[in-house]
Amino acid sequence: MVAVAVLGAVAAAVAFSGRTDQAQTSGADGPGAGVLPTASAKPATSTTAAPTSTEAASDPTATLATVPQASRPSPPVTIARGPSDADLLGEDVSSGDLRVPARPPNQGQYKALSSFAGKSGGFNPCRTTHYVVHAAGGPPNGLSLVQEAVRKLEAATGLRFSYDGTTEAIPASSPRSGRISDLKNVYEPVVIGWATHDQTDLFNNDNADTVGVAVPEVIIFDSGDRLFVSGAVVLLAGADLTPGFGAGATVGNVLLHELGHLVGLDHVDDTKELMQPTLSEDARDGYGPGDRRGLWNMGASRGCASTWIRLR
Ligand SMILES: [Zn+2]
User: Is residue 71 scored above 60 in pLDDT?
Assistant: First the structure.
């Protein structure tokens, strides 16, 4: 038996605001992320990330100096595990078949999600992560934008993703809080798509201008190691974003930013990075140099999780 906690552990949001006179407050009493005030007088996108598990919040390495934090009262659950560690990890890519991207130059800033600081948090590069898309509510080319964003994420990380089709399911916090009898069930597809603020709980703790939130779903093992197994990414239906890739407030940039959170990146202050907390109309086109270093470190460069995850 091994004790693990399965948590939707981090909500990381991106907000877009065309107004500068709006009062924005931190939401610290529920699931989700705090909200930073918009930092620019021009139309801007403010983004936040905050740990939402009490365990993470009590970890000194999880402290965010500049971001209001929220705690989700989601106690670890203890479950009985079945067969073998290999069965649990379910690796379907051998280490020899890992596609490690070229190592980016040592430039720019990146930061691991504070609640998962350390080498051992992240998706398993040796297990294909499946995803489904809720395209309704998005732009007409929304599905292809998601697929292209995931391809860019794969290229930067070496992680494997597989598109499993569209879904009627709306991206939301995992309902799987509590006892889980079969750990294999945690490997459900990541849900990526569009919703209104009323349709999903993922926006609950963010201001009205939030246009994207990402929540990785994480197993926390006895050892404290964290394995990302699934998650959700939601973009705001009807948001005033350019429906393509490119600089500024584009759907592509919001997708890439949220996918960065999904695989374990936190915000940085450097405005030359896509993971900056405030994205203006001047935001770069896609991932920056520090983003790419972070993504590289979150991916295939780590090797199979069976080499870095301690289950107990
Ligand atoms: Zn963000």
Answer: no
